[in-house]
Amino acid sequence: AHLATLQHDDPGELEDHAVLHLEFEGGVTATCEASWALLGGMQSTLEIWGSAGTLRADLLHETGIRQYTGDATGQAWTTPLAEPLHENGYPQELRHFLSCFAEGREPEESGADGLAVLEILLAAYASAAAGSGIDLPFRPKGVARAVDLWARRD
Question: CA-CA 20 to 30 A from 87: which of 14, 66, 133, 154?
Answer without folding.
Answer: 14
